[in-house]
Fold this protein.
Amino acid sequence: MSFSAMDQQLYYQQNTNHMPQQTLQPQYYQQNGSAAPMPMSSANHTYYGNQTNMSSLPPNQPMSQPRPPPQKTIPSMATGLPPQDVLQSQRSPQFAQSSALQEPPQQMNNLSDQMSNISLGGSQPQGFPSHNGLQSPQQTSSVPLAGQPYPLPQSHAPPLHSQPAPQQQSLQQPPQQRPLDPNVGQQSWSRPPMPSHQSQQIPSPDSWNSGAVQTSGSSAPPPTQQSFPNTNSLPPYQQQRGPQSLPPQSMAQQMPPLSNQMRPSLPNQMPPPMSAGYPPPATQGMQGMPQMSAQMPPMSGMPPQGMQQQGMGRYGPQATPGAPQQPMGPPQNNYQQQSQQRLDPEAMPSVVQVIEEDKHKFENNDNVLFTTSIPASVPPLVTTVYDNELSVSNDGGCARPHHIRSTVYQVPIAEDTLKMTSIPLAIVIQPFDDSEVDSRNVVPITNSEIIRCNRCKAYMNPYMRFIDGGRRFQCSLCHHVTEVNSSYFANLDHTGQRLDKFNRPELFLGSYEFRATDEYCRNGVLNARRPHIIFAMELTATSKPILHHLSTHLSDIIRNSLPRDPLNSESPPPLVGFLTYNSKIQIYDIINNGHSHIICDVSSTFPPLTTFLVDPLVHFEQIESFLQSLPSLYANEELETQTVLGPVIEAALLTAQVDTGNWFSGQPNANSPSMPVGKVYMFHCTLPNFGTDAETPGRLKPRWTTSPDEIRKLLGTDKEKTILSPDSNKYYVGLGQRCVTEFASGVELFLFPPINGAFLDVATLGELVRLTGTGTIYKYFNDFSDRFLIDLRYSLRSTFAFDAIMKVRTSTGVRPHDYIGNYYSRTTSDIECAAINTGCNIAVELKYDDKLPEDEFVVIQVAILYTGISGERRVRVHNMALSTCQQVADIYRNACCDTTINVLVRQAVSTLRNGDKTVQQSKELLINRAISILTAYRRHCAQPGSSLGQLILPEALKLLPMYICGALKCDAIDGGPEMTPDDKAFSQIKLIGAPLSLSQVILYPRVLKIEYDETRAHLKSTQIRCSTHKLSDANALAYLLENGFYILLFIPNTIGGHNQFLSAVFGSHVDSISKIQPELASKEILLFFRQLLCYPGDSGKLEGPSYVDLLCHLHREIRTQLN
């Protein structure tokens, strides 16, 4: 965000002096501050404390340099591409091993006692009303599953009813919601109609081989029985790394029939998550079916076999609408034998297809917008909402999905109903959004005074009901009646609405802001001091190249990327300050020609000057001159190899507190208790191990004496918490808390390990970013290319708020129970953040206090009190109203998969990082939660008489198994010896605070196929499934794989015939990476590329369950619980 023309004119019209050629006479101070002569060379420095000669320092301890981890490579397509080795998050060390390629190639697996089918969405009984008033029949599709189920583990899922609920003919519609606002019904909005999908069914596996397509009314021939050897295996969360060597076991299976009833789709029906209905509970059958031993077949390594038949639809061939489906296969009367059949990966629920279909609803000439309604409805997918090319949401009375998303959009009246489903009742709050930075979607600020309920202190919102002619209002949360101030009074119209409703954002919008008064400010002081941004750079032999690179580009970043207030474009940017550090701390006085004040005694830091912070609009020439000369200041000195870190933050923030140039009035008030707010950027390279524990606060040291390889072996085991927990002295925990309570300033870390695998103790240093609320930590691998500068620019621009306090209020019956994210809390109800970026978000789990009223909304209000970039104190309010329900089917129909998986993964990683659970227990938590969710859906929402041989997935949660599969393999949970302790701690910190858009791509990375278009004159990219068998297209020139942190370029073996493409990309045709010498590419990028190089014949381990294996295990467990 560039400065205005007037600002640029100020830069170059100031009559300011550049850095002088000669240095100033230094001033020396003892620790008590009195002047004392000290022999020093002529330099522009002022020393404080007991300066120690370098020769008298204790000898430097040798830096621990663990051996780099073994490189995991991507084998040739001729030998197969292991899913875990294509995308390495921090393991290779660059990409997510875990969630990379989830879906396996087509394989030959033994069937269970019944052929497993997948039905998406269940079914809907006749007469069940949909949101748009139409009776929408259920969309159902089935695909056969193959694969011997896993052994049945001890389930830790919440207990479910063992007996089915009584069968009903139809479900009753929940009571009509009575909005508190009489005009609410006129504001509701329905999503655009989705094209009707005909019921589809995949033919039997035998017909796949023969090429025949079975449609409605036809039946498939009986399958040919085949017998294959089988090996035992473990459940997904108990799989060990490396190959399994267990005795084989042979079994025979017979394919059960594939049957399902099909109903036609009505025109203009609502999308499945909003309108698909569900039938009453079905009577469970097949109690006498023999239970097979729970064993999983090994990965057979069969080549992928895609479905090539004509007329295949979304999940199979299209059937005639309205025609009943006939069973496909033999009669359902024999379970004594098992048959081996093939499974087509294309028949599985596809993340890519679901994403594209959701985006397609908003990619038209009519510019369809998703307008939030009262009550809230299920929003578009996260990938659609955050698509930069789309503008798909509008505030219609509830907060936009950018700010608040719920796991369910119909809340059951009784807590027991929700417990039956095992779906968490939670919301994910993102107070600020990236679209506000460039003023695309700015939350409006009202000029009204702050009106609140006298009892619960809720802020005025669209759901308040005005009574008694407008003289009083009834709170939408606690129903208390409060008198309206005379200055806020307005008459009501014939509908009971205020005449000035649409002139006040708080009366018709879901998100808005108030200007705060003195009582909402820290120490009662309003708008006293300007925010600041402090840059702290390590000055050691290791960091010298980084210091030179940063000083070269930092002036341009300050000129163009400092944050601005989107609601006050005339406000100035934050002030800036600079310091460097090693075993001493150098604080620079930019106004005084960059004179440095050096603190030698880091055990007792203090502010050495009062002109530390400078205005970039006024003193930009001095800033630019200082940064250009910074590398040369220490060019002739032998730099140290040890450093401190904690005292640097203390010294920077203490100096900012006494600064005299950060007052808005221009006249500092020494007696004012005003607190300056801001952020500290730390550019750090080495473990802060200078001095001794008693003399140096925040000193860290390696936690082990054994080799790094031995320590890595603890990752992924029950003992990993011993190396991933923060340091026992809790210094950085206390410092993070002081940054929030005393300094109101956040901390962001940019880490540059000197070698790959060097230990920086990210688990301990990460407490600074976690407690201060930023949650921002960047880690680079022995390079400081343009990616680092892009990250720094984005971090600065996305800085939005300081000294924030957030409180969540809910209506009667529910209350906030637990918070998951990056924050500090002194009470159980308020959470505090020293600095907030646009990507910061927090998950809030809600808990029942009592049974909910049937005719009222569940209202959630999130209030954030913060200081903006302009220094103005504001209150931002986000509101959401959810309707209530009584039926289990309504919960599943209005569930949000993106929010649900985000909350579940946060819970698993949070318990793992806190040491409450082991890796295996965290995986069990995810697996058992998925089993309970799908079992409850099958028990309470499945079509009567449906076969237990079908795995029925709710339409709204059909991607849940896919995301669970990615979570079981993600670095934050499954990271093992191929990672370093710092890498796994880094991945856990990022995932705990990951916004929905980031968690989605972490769990299911994007894969783009690059190929020529029809004219072969241009390139086009197509997103494909994240599967190994998708990386063997003969027309593909390359594949781009991205997981939210890194992008990999994969060149397949089939590229040999495209010399023109190779020449365009690499400059010339080459047959080895070592011959590539691009003129326009930096050596850092080239090293990065070579590090990920693999050669034909390289092998890798296959770790974790495949998507198909997980579905088989889920199906087996569901049938066990139903029986």
The mean pLDDT is 73. The chain has 25 helices and 37 strands.
